[in-house]
Each structure stands twice: as C-alpha cells, then as structure tokens.
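wait is this the right file?? whatever heres the structure
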C-alpha cells in the first residue's frame, strides 16, 4: 500500500514532506497560469512582469524537490511502492516546471501583443475557455496525486482530447483571420503561440495523471488510449 507506515518515522516524514512540496509547487504553478491569462485579457503589464519574474521560483522548487528525492533514494533505498512514489514525484515536478515555462511564455506573448499599437484589441474568449479546461486538468491531476485517485486519470485523458480539439478550432480561426486581413498576421501568430502553450499545459497535466496510475498500480499507461487506461484502473 502507498500509505503504509515505516519502521523509521523519519522516512515517513521525508515522504510526507516531498508530497507536500509537490502540491505547493503545483499550487504556485496554477497561480502562474491564472495570472498569465489575467494579464493577457487585461493587458496588465505589472502582472506580466511578475509572472515572467516568478518563473525562477518554479525552477528553484523543482531543483529543491529533486534534491530531496535524491537524498531519500541514497539514504533509504526505497523499494516497491515507495520507489514508485519517488519516481512519480521526480517526473511530476519536471512536468510542473515545464507548465511554469508555458505560463511565462503566455505572459511574454501578452507583452508583445500590448507592446505596439494594434488595429484592434483581439478577443480572447476562446483562449479563456480552453485555458479554463487546461487549468481544471492540472488541478485534478494534483488532486489525484494527493488522493491517489485513479478514476481522475482517465477523465483527465478525455479532457486532453477536448483541449486538442479546441486548439485545432483556434488554429483554423486564426488562419482565417490572417487570410482575410494580412494586418492581423502578427497578432494572430502571437495568439497562436499562446494557444499552443495552453495545449501543452493540457499535455503535461495528462502526463501527471498517468504517473498517478503508475504510482498506485505499478503500470505504465503512457502512450495508451483512455479506454485502455480505464480498463487498467478497473483490473
């Protein structure tokens, strides 16, 4: 069992600390995405600067948690479910760091959009919609990690398919805009980079949910369909 107690209370404390730090990092990354989207919609330069500047904090969190994991492996030599948990943490913080990079990218694109006089302010309703889905996926993935919720994993994979569909719809819309009015090309490309960043956030959240299945079941479900994941969870 994942939650079994160990003879060494220090070992239990180490594992609990690393779990807590992953959730703290995840919460901060969620905040980075929310603020990046807020800055995009409102054109708030102060928030844009904060999101970009705070990316180093996400990087520092990854390095710190990774070091704790390395110490646990060296000192405790974990096996079975404990080792799977540590491996899940190492993979999860890598995805969280990359999500943080995407949040900073969104902020930088927002800066470009508002840095020059545009013919008109673009609408961001579609971006806000797909960002809400991706943020929900990330929140669910972190909750699945905390609760060892296998049922959430398959649901998140289904949501990732929806994010992909939304991205393709935004891409088609932007292509139409650029064909109809070449003056919209620059802004459309910047919005496209933002949409792609959100699509990547969804991918990373999906990865994180798949790691939870590995942690609990010991089964690698990367690169398989949602149907296969659901069958594995029920087995």
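ok assuming it is, sequence goes like this
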């Amino acid at each position: 069992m994942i939650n079994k107690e160990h003879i060494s209370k220090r070992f239990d404390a180490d594992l609990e600390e690393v779990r807590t730090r992953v959730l703290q990092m995840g919460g901060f990354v969620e905040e980075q995405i929310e603020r990046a989207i807020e800055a995009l919609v409102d054109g708030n330069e102060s928030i844009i600067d904060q999101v970009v500047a705070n990316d180093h904090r996400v990087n520092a969190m990854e390095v710190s948690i990774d070091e704790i994991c390395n110490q646990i492996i060296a000192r405790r030599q974990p096996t079975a479910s404990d080792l799977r948990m540590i491996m899940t943490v190492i993979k999860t913080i890598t995805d969280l760091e990359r999500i943080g990079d995407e949040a900073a990218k969104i902020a930088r694109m927002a800066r470009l959009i508002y840095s020059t006089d545009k013919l008109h302010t673009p609408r961001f309703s579609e971006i806000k919609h797909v960002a809400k889905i991706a943020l929900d996926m990330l929140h669910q993935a972190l909750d699945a990690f905390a609760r060892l919720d296998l049922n959430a994993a398959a649901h998140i994979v289904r949501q990732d398919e929806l994010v992909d569909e939304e991205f393709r719809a935004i891409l088609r819309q932007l292509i139409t805009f650029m064909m109809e009015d070449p003056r919209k090309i620059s802004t459309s490309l910047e919005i496209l980079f933002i949409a792609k960043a959100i699509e990547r956030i969804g991918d990373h959240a999906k990865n994180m949910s798949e790691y939870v299945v590995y942690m609990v079941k010991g089964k690698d479900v990367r690169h398989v369909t949602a149907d296969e994941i659901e069958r594995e969870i029920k087995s």
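The mean pLDDT is 91. so i think its the right one actually
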